[in-house]
Amino acid sequence: MTMSTPTLITFIVYLVALLAIGLFFYRRTNNLSDYVLGGRRLGGGTAALSAGASDMSGWLLLGLPGAMYASGMNQVWIAVGLSIGAYLNWQFVAKRLRVYTEVAQDSITVPDYLENRFHDHSKLLRVVSALVILLFFAFYTSSGMVAGATLFQKSFGLEYNTALWIGAAVIVSYTFLGGFLAVSWTDFFQGILMFLALVVVPVVVVTTQGGWSETVAKVADVDPARLDIFHEMTLFGIISLMAWGLGYFGQPHIVVRFMAVRSSREIPKARLVGMTWMVLSLYGAIFTGFAGIAYFSDQPLENSETVFISLSQVLFNPWVAGILLAAILSAIMSTIDSQLLVSSSALTEDFYKAILRPGASQTELVWVGRFTVAAIALIAILLAFDPDSTVLGLVAYAWGGFGAAFGPVIILSLFWKRMTRNGALAGMILGAITVIVWKQMSGGIFDMYEILPGFILCTLGIIVVSRMDRKPSAEIEGEFAEMENGVR
Amino acid sequence: MESALSSATWFWLIAPMTAVVILSLITFFTERR
After folding, report:
1. Cα-Cα-Cα-Cα dihedral sign, residues A70, A74, A77, A79
2. Chain A contact for B14, CB < 8 A?
3. By the 8 A CB rule, do A54 and A254 touch?
4. Are the beta carbons of A194 and A56 closer than 8 angstroms?
5. How far is B1 from chain A (nearest CA, A)?
């Protein structure tokens, strides 16, 4: 498929607007806290959509509709697990983390927070968590680059390598310039665009099929099993899919949005906006894939993940198709840019400033941050050149890695006063290693999603080692109490 | 035969995801100060 002129124009206007946002915030970024965390200036609504858009990568517009199209209703379980996980994260983690990161010496990254929370002067906690971030984000970012390149390639008929470079150049240039404020604002617009696309497409498809009953009847003609949420599902399988929800508590690019909210009082509003956005978008993706079964019943798609792209192209005029295409790219890019930024802050804050040059000036740090964005993007691009790279496998791996290594550490650090630095360290290492090792095994229990055993072992590691360790100092307990007062 | 989604499918498709939005709405009001 080659690009039509209106589609191309719409698309280019969109890319130019993104760069303009980057340039605008370039002028408003004065220090590292501005660059990495926007100086904690985000309103509830922006924070919510920004967290949602960073969270939902190309998976929302390509992966989930594709899975629904290929298998039907039994794919809904993952969406159920994710919504519950996201809600619990907003409900129990967001406010405490926002307050605690300020109490703990105004921490601006996850490694920064962990070091300050446990008064760790050895830098061990900071370095280990930064290593976990760099390792899993390299794969995560790379998978996004692959998804973006594939989209450019399929929609515009570009060569894969050219598509990869063009997509990467746009993403890197505005993350490079504008930092967190640019990323959060573009995430906000991208979140709105993704949402509109996911509402419009399924409604139009169902209407063209003559209504809901006719759509369901056509799906049943293709395969009645696709109407059944329990088709070929065991309890084990359902638990494994729902376990995706556990991943939320440990995703650095998502929880960093909680730290950036203007005030903890904005959290209830952010939670409501964020959850409404997420659930409606998930329903949009579910029904797009489901109605796609009916729409393409005569001529099934070769690649099920192109169901959203194919529907946009056949059902809408080229101007609208250009916007819908931009929405898909939004989904991919809004995730990559946030991940680049967190990786960059891990290198800048946790290695460069913490170990190499403690006395570095703010200007120097902002520039080191910018260049590390470029360097990390380059590594991700190089990984993406491997033709064997698969998007979903890598996303699941990175999601599981973060969920298991950081999830229990973050939750317990916010709720358990008795938790110690050694407990955090043990849990983090145990969680990360479990995910890496589990992934190499297969058959029986090892077919379970690795996040579940990783999460459990990390939790046990924290509890056992903290209990064996000395009690935290009075100063640490004092800060914990201060956080609890701040939350009330 | 008329095809339709079973009640169990409807339940799991609608109930948990709607519940988290309703809970967010409730806490939006209860946690306001």
Report:
1. positive
2. no
3. yes
4. yes
5. 9
Closest by Cβ to A79, choosing from B8, B17, B24 = B17
pLDDT, tens only, A83-142:
999 999 999 999 999 999 999 988 888 998 999 999 999 989 998 998 999 889 888 888
Q: Which residues of B touch A267 (CB under 8 A)?
A: 31
Show Cβ contacts of residue A43 under 8 Å, excluding neighbours closer than 6 positions. A261, A262, A266
Facing A279 at nearest CB: one of B8, B21, B31: B21
Backbone angles phi, psi at A469, to 5 degrees: -80, 170
**How far, in Å, are A66, A82, A127, A142, A319 from residue A148 at the CA level?**
16, 23, 31, 10, 20
Is B2 in Cβ contact with A224 (below 8 Å)? no
First to last CA, chain B: 55
Q: Take residue B18 and report the two structure tokens written for it.
A: 């709607």
H-only helix segments in A157-234:
160-208, 212-222
Residue A109: exposed, middle, or buried by beta-carbon count in 10 A (0-12, 13-18, 19+)? buried
How many helices and strands (H and E) does chain B possess?
1, 0
Given a contact cutoff of 8 angstroms between Cβ atoms, the answer to whether A183 and A341 are in contact is: yes
- Asked if A400 contacts A434 with a C-beta cutoff of 8 angstroms, the reply is no
- Chain B residues in contact with A86 (beta carbon < 8 A): 20
Q: What is the pLDDT of residues A356-411, one digit of tens each?
A: 888 888 888 888 888 888 888 888 888 788 766 666 677 888 999 999 999 999 99
Find tokens 């590390």 and name the residue.
Answer: A372
Q: Other C-beta atoms within 10 Å of A400: how many? A: 30
Inter-chain residue contact A230 with B8, CB threshold 8 Å:
yes
Using a CB-CB cut-off of 8 Å, the residues of chain A touching B26 are none
pTM of the model: 0.89
The three-state secondary structure class of A42 is: strand
DSSP string over A398-420: HHHHHHHHHHHHHHHHHH-TT--
ipTM above 0.85, yes or no: yes
User: Under an 8 A CB cutoff, do B18 and A279 touch?
Assistant: yes
Rounded-to-integer distance, Cα A442 and Cα A292, Å:
33
Chain B: residue whose CA lies nearest to A84: B20
